[in-house]
Amino acid sequence: MHIFLYGPVGAGKSTVGKILADNLNLPFVDSDQVIETNAGMPIFEIMAQHGEQACRDLETAALKQIINDKESVIALGGGALLREENRALVESNGKVILLMAELATLLGRLRSDSNQRPLLAGDLHEKLKGLLTQRQEHYNSFSLCFDANQVPQEIAIQIQTGLGRFHVSAMGKYDVIVQNGGLENIGEMLKSRGLQNPIFVTDHNIAQFHAENMSASLNKAGFDSKMIPIPAGEAYKNLDTISELWKSFLENGLHRKSTVIALGGGVIGDMAGFASATYMRGIHWVGVPTTLLSMVDASLGGKTGFDLPQGKNLVGSFYPPKLVLADPQVLKTLPEAELISGLAEVVKHGIISDPELFDLCSRGLDWIKANLEEIVKRAMAVKIKIIEEDPYEKGFRAALNLGHTVGHAVELVSKFELRHGEAVAIGMVVEANYAERIGIAKLGLAHGIATVLSKLGLPTSILKGMPREKIIQAMQMDKKKNAKTIRFAFPVEIGRVELVEVTDLASVLEEL
């Protein structure tokens, strides 16, 4: 699927396009340059010698040529889609992104641009104003519109979030795609990336809903579809299951160039990823998360592993996938309690870095259910930004542990009767309360966080009767401990957290 950047002259289509292409590891194409290459002369000369109609004909020919090439980011001329044939051509081969800026911004950019623009010859201000008025209705007909008055780097990031397209490169290199109905295309996605001999790992609960679609997509792409089912649930996230996976890999003839697809939630992703990391010293794997929690958190960053009786994820490795595909449509089969559990991580990402995402969560569960794709894209964008900056959790990536130090402990002490997201929700409120007590967080922050979580149906306090001593013991065993201290990620305000080393764990639970 191509990405077409469109809008008036001066909107920054080429500048933003080059940044976007670099971010997504895609080629960049300037359609005007293709026209000039094909014609053997600059566009202003084509216009002068042959007129606008001839130029538009060359534009159509160039578009037909471009769409046959591999997936690219393409900058279009300011009137390229006025011709219905052209518009139909690009919209059937990709997404059109409209860049719009204020008249003053466009004028400032054009006055410093040496390119000759025949349609703007003469009084630049009046000609541009007239052109914008003439094309206003046309430009307004495009739904994916972005503010081009901002710096190009920020525009590119906003486009990526809007499209649900990312390319992680800090630890390994892989695409992250959010696409409704994407499960039907997973076979072609593997094929286009040169991934071979796929087999998918899933549990019995997920298989009844999605195994058939996965198999159909793989078969359609020419693969021999094979499935490895494993028991469902955190209780099976252990070395015994990992051993069974290794055994199944051997029985199914997996080799160094084979690909394991993790079709499921965080438990499936962590175990299939770890088994892939350690089988034959590492084979390819692909994440296809089927829960909200795994989409926005567990599937990203390359963390793999399994639990020990003493705690969660105490054995594991950093081993990135080759692709992550999040299909929000599969969430329709997710039990509501699991959807609500996943929303804890969405709220967490809003607290860490995206106040607007936090505000969206405050609209309640019904609004979120109707706008899951937007929620997934924004929450994934937060985590991707952080793991790109700190892939191996040596610095700020630890911010993603907000709510998890206490959360993992209460989850373990509850003997996993609490879902992961429920435990993290409790952890965020407990940790926010402590942050207020020691003067890090603004007063009232914990209450504000608890209000949003409660509105979504998430718990906000530790269950009565849960022994504090066992919670502290579990926190001490948590994988994030470092010498005599544990590093916490405490919220300061919505959109900002601070990393703090704590020695007195009992003080964190003082109000219990």
Characterize the structure shown.
Strand 15 and strand 16 form a beta hairpin. By secondary structure, this protein is α/β, with parallel strands linked by helices. 49% of the residues lie in helices and 18% in strands. The strands form 4 sheets. The chain has a 7-stranded mixed β-sheet, with helices on both faces. The protein has a 5-stranded parallel β-sheet with strand order 2-3-1-4-5. It has 3 domains: 2-154, P-loop containing nucleotide triphosphate hydrolases (Rossmann fold, 3-Layer(aba) Sandwich), CATH 3.40.50; 165-334, Rossmann fold (3-Layer(aba) Sandwich), CATH 3.40.50; 394-508, Dehydroquinate synthase-like - alpha domain (Dehydroquinate synthase-like, alpha domain, Up-down Bundle), CATH 1.20.1090. The mean pLDDT is 92.
Strand order of the largest sheet: 6-7-14-11-10-8-9
Helix content: 40-55%
Gap from first CA to last CA = 53 Å
Computed CA radius of gyration, to the nearest angstrom = 26 Å
Q: Would you tell me the structural class of the helices and strands? A: alpha/beta
Mean pLDDT comes to 92
- The total beta strand count reads 17
CATH topology of the largest domain: Rossmann fold
Low-confidence runs of at least 5 consecutive residues: none
Shape: globular
Count of the domains: 3
Please report the first level of CATH classification, the CATH class of the largest domain: Alpha Beta
Task: Give the second-level CATH assignment, the architecture of the largest domain.
Answer: 3-Layer(aba) Sandwich
